C-alpha cells in the first residue's frame, strides 16, 4: 500500500457514508464508491483491501464520534450514577437522532470478526466507557456488579434491542413516536438491578 494521502481518505469515507445513507451495504460496489469520489476503484484499493474494510472504518469513525459525545455528556455530571444514566441516554438519543447510521453500525455493516483483537476491541469503545463508569460506581460502593463488562454489554444489547424495535416499527405502535419511553423502562430495570439506592 502507498502512503495515505491525508486528503483522499476523508473524502472516500465521506462519499461512502453518503452512499450508505441511501443504499444498503450489499448494494454498493467499489465502482459506485469510486464514481461518487471521482477517482478510480484502483485508487480506493490502495487504501482499503475491500469494501467491507472501508465500511468498517466508517463504522468505527461513527462509534468514536459517539463515544466523544458520551464522554462530553458524562463530564457534565458529578455523581457516577448520573454519569452512567447520561452515557446510556446519550447512546439512545444519538441512535434516535441518527437512525440510519445507528442501524448500519449495529447491524448493517459486516462484523470485523477476522480482524486482530486490537482492531476488534476498538469497536467496543462505547462499551468500555460504560464499563469504566460502572467499575467506578462499584468502587464507590454505590453499585453492585461482579462483572461490569458483562453487565454493560447486556445493557447495551438490551437498549439497542429496544431502539431497533422502535426504529423498525416492531414495538407496539404507541412507542413508534415515543422511543424514549420504551427505552427508559429497560434502563430503569437495569439501574434498579445494579444500583443500591
Describe what you observe in this structure.
- This protein has 197 residues and is an all-alpha fold.
- The longest helix has 24 residues.
Q: In a nutshell, what does this entry contain?
A:
With 197 residues, the protein is an all-alpha fold. It has 10 helices and no strands.
List keywords for this structure.
single chain; 197 residues; mainly alpha; 69% helix; globular
Could you outline the blueprint of secondary structure elements for this entry?
Elements: H1 8-20, H2 30-37, H3 41-45, H4 51-74, H5 80-97, H6 99-108, H7 117-122, H8 125-139, H9 148-167, H10 179-194
Order of helices and strands: HHHHHHHHHH
Estimated radius of gyration? 19 Å
- Report the β-strand fraction as a percent range: under 5%
Q: Which regions are unreliable across 5 or more consecutive residues at pLDDT < 50?
A: none
